[in-house]
Amino acid sequence: MDTLLLIKAAVMGVVEGLTEFLPISSTGHLILAGSLLGFDDDKAKVFDIAIQTGAIFAVILVYWQKIRSTVRGLAHSAEAQRFAFNVLIGFLPAVIMGLLLGKAIKAHLFTPAVVATTFIVGGFIILWAERRPASAVRIHDVEYMRGRDALKVGLVQCLAMIPGTSRSGATIIGGMLLGLSRKAATDFSFYLAIPTLIGAGAYSLYKERALLSMADLPLFGVGLVVSFISAWVCVRWLLRFIASHSFEVFAWYRIAFGLLVLATSYTGWVSWSA
Q1: How many whole angstroms separate alpha carbon 209 and alpha carbon 53?
Q2: What are phi and psi of 139, to 5 degrees?
Q3: What's the pTM?
């Protein structure tokens, strides 16, 4: 396989891993990077979704102790059962909405105006969320979430179907506005990402299997490995970062990136299409 193509796959893996779990929309950054690299055909779009699985393996590694204890305790621990139920109930709305509205959203909402608007509006929502009073926090740890809390976060996650929103941004900031602490919202966002992104990646590979062949294995393998490594670094950094910082820096970044979307679309530099 072409060495240059493998290098492009590695660059896309870095972009995916570094942006998937930050509240800044990995999709928007992958479109920009793909356009700059000339890596934006139909197969590349399947690649972008598939390499999310590599990023998810990084989350599984970081949270392995919690995941393992939950699985072991499912048969006898009420706490483990409640946690697993919360992740399941938070995951289901995205499945239902994705099957019902996925094609329509991809066909009608993936426009520069929508992408830029969601980036900018999302930035201001983050600024608003970070200015909430400390008394607004009801839940300081995911262990204390109830089923209805998980369902609400799951419903908010559906907003990430709108391009430019950011799945992690929707769940983290949405969770904060619903009464979760910054850490609890971030933790639950990561747990929720595991079934959501693995499911999305598997579904995309199955649906577009006619575009793929065994010759594509090195391409996807490089993207997955690089995505895993960069996401592992990013997740560990973010968990340390939120212990002493707010998300405001990401809000201003989103606003600036939204303006970049408008500028590159107006000049024809980037094609912001699904």
Answers
A1: 16
A2: -125, 115
A3: 0.89
